[in-house]
């Protein structure tokens, strides 16, 4: 059964139900901004079920399919997705390309290539992962898409540590939504598969998207 946008909880909903808990003021990476709380979601489950404008695929440079979320997306979209991907001539690490969604409930797929993690060249890997989020968001905005759902890029087969990768994902999404380019984007959905990944997002989301109450607490102190 496809999952509609209205069924996906926003950060504001998650604070209300105490699934997210406010962090102490000194830990915050950004000051509270009320409007952002309705534009970010956390969803645990299968990204291929989401009925949104675009889902992001953690692909490889060939764009011709693979395991993990890439395999799940190609399986659910059907062979026409592979046919369109064949026309794209691959994609560089940190870059992104867009296709239609075919049999998916999602209208489009944004294919991005995360870095393969290694402890050497860490700065470069981090910049490449940040670029995946930036270029995917920019592609969505350029195509007038209103919602984008991201899996946790590079943190499966490509081995990027989930906490480091999540800080990068949250930084880039915050910057983009708060910029002029990002104004037209209504919702970014972080999709997690495992409970461990969900715990990491639940711990870090409040640092980047703090609730308004933290603002009044900060003002009071
Ligand atoms: N829905 C949401 N998230 C999922 C799903 C799903 N259906 N399936 C897996 N995940 P990975 P990578 C999560 O390995 O690390 C492919 O072979 C998964 O738990 O899919 O960027 C490509 O072709 C993890 O948290 O992507 C590349 O060769 C996250 O998606 C390579 O893997 C990403 O894991 C890319 O590796």
UniProtKB/TrEMBL annotation:
The record's listing under CDD domains reads:
Macro_OAADPr_deacetylase
Domain Macro, by residue range, is: 27-209
Q: Which residues cross the membrane?
A: none
Superkingdom in the source lineage = Eukaryota
Can you say what this protein is called?
A1pp-domain-containing protein
């Amino acid at each position: 059964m496809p999952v509609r946008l209205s069924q996906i909880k926003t950060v504001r909903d998650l604070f209300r139900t105490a699934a997210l808990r406010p962090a102490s003021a000194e830990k915050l990476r950004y000051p509270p901004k009320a409007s952002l709380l309705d534009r970010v979601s956390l969803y645990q489950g299968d990204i291929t079920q989401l009925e949104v404008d675009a889902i992001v695929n953690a692909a490889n440079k060939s764009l011709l399919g693979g395991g993990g979320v890439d395999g799940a997306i190609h399986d659910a979209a059907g062979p026409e997705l592979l046919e369109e991907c064949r026309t794209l001539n691959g994609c560089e690490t940190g870059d992104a390309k867009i296709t239609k969604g075919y049999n998916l409930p999602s209208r489009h797929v944004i294919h991005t290539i995360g870095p393969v993690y290694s402890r050497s060249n860490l700065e470069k890997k981090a910049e490449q992962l940040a670029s995946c989020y930036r270029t995917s968001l920019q592609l969505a905005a350029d195509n007038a898409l209103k919602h984008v759902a991201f899996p946790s890029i590079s943190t499966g087969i490509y081995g990027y540590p989930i906490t480091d990768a999540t800080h990068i994902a949250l930084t880039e999404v915050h910057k983009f939504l708060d910029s002029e380019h990002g104004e037209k984007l209504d919702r970014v959905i972080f999709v997690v598969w495992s409970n461990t990944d969900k715990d990491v997002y639940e711990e870090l989301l409040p640092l980047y998207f703090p609730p308004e109450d933290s603002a009044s607490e900060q003002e009071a102190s």
